[in-house]
């Protein structure tokens, strides 16, 4: 059933939960998945590359993109903009490839309005204490920023009801196993493939 359109998967959760690490491990296992790179105005962290991890833009550039309606979603988060380019996502889904968005919770809720057929996965920390330790261990955040991120994380966890699935990131390999199971499950859903099978049955002579 190669006519099947790709599925948009949204991987989201509080800052510091390990979204990037899990997404990279998932893509190492399944290189056929397509990753939609986000645009951001924050500074690149050590080892991050423009056009690979993010498209790094200035605030003026992003404001112009917002005005021109070039995002599926965008959000201002801890003083920086993040956004998902629209054209790439739509084209890739039409080609029959699954697209993964790795975005903040605010952005995920916007995508839910624009793409309600998307599959929303909330990556959950084993505990808030563990989340705090992960943010601190980055070594890139000031004490005030750590506190702000934790306050934001508490608010974001309260929005979990908007998601289809919750995956606890207690171990990266376990988290990837669970996400792979979700992908397979979604492709087997009756409503996604019923029309294709009915079309095939209609062409069969009895």
TrEMBL record:
Predominant location: cytoplasm
Locations listed in the record: Cytoplasm
Record-annotated Guanylate kinase-like domain positions: 6-184
Coiled-coil ranges per UniProt: none
Cellular component annotations (GO), alphabetically ordered: cytosol
Listed PROSITE patterns: GUANYLATE_KINASE_1, GUANYLATE_KINASE_2
Keyword hit for Nucleotide-binding: yes
Binding, ATP: 13-20
Entry EC no(s): 2.7.4.8
Reactions it catalyzes: GMP + ATP = GDP + ADP
Keywords linked to the UniProt accession: ATP-binding, Cytoplasm, Kinase, Nucleotide-binding, Transferase
Cross-referenced HAMAP family: Guanylate_kinase
Membership in a protein family: Belongs to the guanylate kinase family.
UniProt protein name: Guanylate kinase
């Amino acid at each position: 059933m190669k006519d099947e359109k790709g599925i948009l998967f949204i991987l989201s959760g509080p800052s510091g939960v390990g979204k990037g690490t899990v997404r990279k491990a998932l893509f190492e296992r399944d290189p056929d998945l397509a990753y939609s790179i986000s645009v951001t105005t924050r500074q690149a962290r050590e080892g991050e590359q423009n056009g690979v991890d993010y498209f790094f833009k200035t605030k003026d550039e992003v404001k112009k993109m917002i005005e021109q309606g070039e995002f599926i979603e965008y959000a201002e988060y801890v003083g920086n903009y993040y956004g998902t380019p629209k054209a790439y996502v739509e084209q890739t889904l039409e080609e029959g490839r699954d697209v993964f968005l790795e975005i903040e919770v605010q952005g995920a809720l916007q995508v839910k309005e624009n793409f309600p057929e998307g599959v929303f996965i909330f990556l959950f920390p084993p505990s808030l204490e563990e989340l705090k330790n992960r943010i601190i261990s980055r070594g890139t955040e000031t004490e005030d920023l750590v506190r702000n991120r934790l306050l934001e994380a508490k608010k974001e966890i309260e929005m979990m009801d908007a998601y289809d699935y919750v995956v606890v990131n207690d171990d990266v390999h376990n988290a990837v196993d669970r996400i792979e199971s979700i992908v397979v499950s979604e492709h087997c859903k009756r409503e996604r493939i019923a029309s294709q099978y009915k079309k095939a049955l209609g062409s069969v002579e009895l």
